[in-house]
Amino acid sequence: MSSRPRGTTISRVEITNISSHGVWVLTGDKELFMSYEDFPWFKDAPIRKVVNVEEPTPGNFYWPELDVDVGIDTIEHPDRFPLKAK
Q1: pTM of the shown model
Q2: CA distances in angstroms from 44 to 8, 18, 37, 40, listed in the order given
């Protein structure tokens, strides 16, 4: 008897907090903070759009309703990636 392939991998990324300072993202065993100063796309976005996040590849997060794509390296070291939306 052979086993059937398992279903699609479920993203392990989750928004754990949204505050007046920024957004916290939980992935695996890491919780990361994205300040609005470094990630302005989230500041005025509706909560339902911010919590709708996917992890299409490990360590890469995508917010489809905001068309924002951010990697763990960018979150951990925003000074290395100074491009910001206006």
Answers
A1: 0.80
A2: 32, 11, 12, 8
